[in-house]
Write a structure and sequence with these properties.
single chain; alpha+beta; six-stranded antiparallel sheet; 4 helices
Length: 170
């Protein structure tokens, strides 16, 4: 998937134009658990040839055997020779997400934007609900969506014979 710089930023929840070396951060703290969530979109160089987006959570109190900091999503887009951007790296829930599901780029950006939408409202994102919505297949060929079922079997002779017998046609 190739995107213009503006389209990439828009799909990542950025409303304004960004320039080289800029970062757009968001931060929210869950009032009950005191867990925090940070997200940011970064322009990594002066030529805007590399863009990164990341969502990180930090637990206020973690159990001894679980990590305190978790990277929920990280992606990296590079500027191609065509002048458009392509997401080249993506990790989701600790695993490589590149080509792991159909439309993986779109799903990763949809997940990121939905989380940012919640954070802009000062709400700690419900990642399970966001994942369920963002990672759902839209349907269509090979995507496991809601199909129409089998086509009815129609025998041409039956149609022709019905027309001949009644003389009325369709």
């Amino acid at each position: 998937m190739l995107l213009t710089f503006r389209d990439l930023l828009e799909k990542l929840g950025i409303d304004s134009q960004m320039e080289g070396y800029q970062t757009q951060p968001w931060h929210v703290i869950d009032s009950e658990t005191k867990n925090s969530c940070s997200a940011e979109v970064r322009i990594m160089d002066g030529e805007c040839s590399e863009v990164e987006a990341e969502i990180i959570t930090e637990k206020a109190e973690a159990l001894p055997n679980e990590p305190r900091i978790q990277i929920i999503l990280w992606l990296q887009a590079h500027l191609e020779a065509t002048g458009k951007y392509r997401i080249v790296k993506c990790r989701f829930e600790g695993k490589d997400f590149v080509n792991s599901v159909a439309s993986w780029e779109e799903k990763a950006m949809k997940f990121f934007k939905a989380a940012i939408r919640e954070m802009k409202k000062d709400i700690f994102p419900d990642f399970d609900a966001i994942k369920e919505d963002a990672m759902r297949d839209k349907g269509g060929a090979g995507q496991g969506g809601q199909g129409g079922g089998r086509a009815p079997k129609i025998k041409p002779n039956q149609l022709l014979n019905d027309m001949k017998n009644t003389g009325r046609g369709f």
